[in-house]
Amino acid sequence: MINDDKLHEECGVFGVFCNDPEQDAAPLVYYGLFSLQHRGQESAGIATVKDKVIEMRKGMGLVGDIFDPETLSQIKGPAAVGHVRYSTVGSSNLENAQPFVSRFKLGSIAVAHNGTLTNADVVRELLEDAGIGFTSSSDSEVIVNLIAKNYKKGLEKAFTDTIQFIKGSYALVILTDDALVGARDPNGIRPLCLGRLGGEQAGGWILSSESCAIEAAGGVFVRDIDPGEVVIINHDQVFSFSFSEKTRRAVCSFEYIYFARPDSVIDGIDVYSSRIRAGEILGMESAVAADLVIGVPDSGIPAAIGYGRATGTPFGMGIVKNKYIGRTFIAPGQSVRERAVFLKHFVIRSEVNGKRIVLIDDSIVRGTTSRRLVSLLKGAGAKEVHIRICCPPVRFPCYFGIDTPHRKDLISNASSADEVCKSLGADSLTFITVNGLLESLMPAAAADSGFCLGCFTGEYPIPVQYTHSPA
Ligand code: SF4
Fold first, then answer.
1. Domains within the chain, CATH numbers bracketed
2. 233 FRET partner, CA 20 to 30 A, in 72, 287, 332, 392?
3. Which pLDDT belongs to residue 335?
4. Residue 442 CA, ligand 1 centroid: distance in Å
5. Tens digit of pLDDT for each residue in 104-131?
């Protein structure tokens, strides 16, 4: 992909339960998925339930390409779940597109999952030994089959048993014959929140990866789902319970740095404000004399504003992103990927010519983008380019639903900041410190980390098996 020099979010999930049995939930899920498109662009799907029958449509590509008014009108019912996918476990094909639907003797369910199970192989083997077949290579299908297997114990028990068996990261939105269910893993690594439908709608409930999508579907944000919490929504009631006694909150810090939309609020932290703060802290930690601060669009821009405020450096738009490049541009191999960076960004010469530039970006993964941007800026006449990065060096892979390159391809894995700076051709390079990052996320309690920092520190909130790590 053209933005292969970034870590990639795996998925977004969305669910709607309308109180009015005559109302169709699919259009609302469509709006929700549209707003979560940044979390996955490879495939999308919507499953609805009407009169205890689950219908599903899914396809490869963007939400707007898969669902037109006619397709949406064919999937009827007052409750629905949807999913957008970027694959990390399992190939990118229609079989692995979600939601996954399972029809069995006692009913049917549709599951949409964001995250990665760290014990999926073991659970899959146990289920296969019990004669349960799989149609995909996705770890999410393990969850569907486990719930189906436990369903005879009743809905609540089936979920509790399933969730206590699986390990890893998950935000789950599940549709049954008559209920919408949400669950978040015991560490809350992936985000999930609850919203309420009201106003012109007859009322109902929403579950979403991010708060921005609740508003897009005409709802209002109610609260985040707690780590280790299950919420069950049906016609009679909305109730929730905790399935995990001991939970240590460890929300993915990259959600704030890069993945989430800036207008979302995750676990009480406003994403846009946290990016501004990260820039301010970078300014306090590593200011440099400069004429202009610019941000790499999109997520580097708020931090550049923050850096400018903290240091008094004028903020400007030195780099513009090509809006029309699309996410489907495939750039296999390093050399093609490097050319692709030229297509993605362009520099405004009149803004940068003759100036000392501070260039702010959210992260450095392989270094391809930063190297090219330095070269573009210098080619446009910039006198100096000083790079400031809003996260600490990415040195370790992610095992919780984020697509990370092999460790040997992470430019900071075996190199110091000075070595990386030299290889990028920049005049200086600094990263925000881990404490600085924490302070940007939680200014009042920086010492108490409620965040996963695994790809920076190598310390993960749950034990992982090193399946594709150290080189
Ligand atoms: S390892 Fe990094 S990307 Fe993965 S969940 Fe933790 S902070 Fe997020």
1. 8-249 (3.60.20.10), 269-447 (3.40.50.2020)
2. 72
3. 58
4. 17
5. 878 889 999 999 898 888 889 988 888 8
The predicted structure's pLDDT at residue 102? 87
Residue 444's pLDDT is 54
pLDDT for position 201: 57
Ligand 1 atom at minimal distance to the Cα of residue 454: 1
At residue 459, the pLDDT reads 93
What per-residue confidence (pLDDT) applies to 141?
87
Residue nearest to atom 5 of ligand 1 (CA): 252
Mutation choice for ligand 1 from 10, 117, 398, 403, CB with most ligand atoms inside 8 A: 398
Contact 250, 186 (CB under 8 A): no
Q: Which residues line ligand 1 (CB under 6 A)?
A: 7, 189, 252-254, 398, 400, 402, 452-455
The residue from 11, 252, 421, 455 that is catalytic is: 11
Whether residue 11 lies in the annotated active site: yes
Residue nearest to atom 2 of ligand 1 (CA): 455
d(CA 4, CA 84): 18
Give the number of the atom of ligand 1 that is nearest the alpha carbon of residue 190: 5
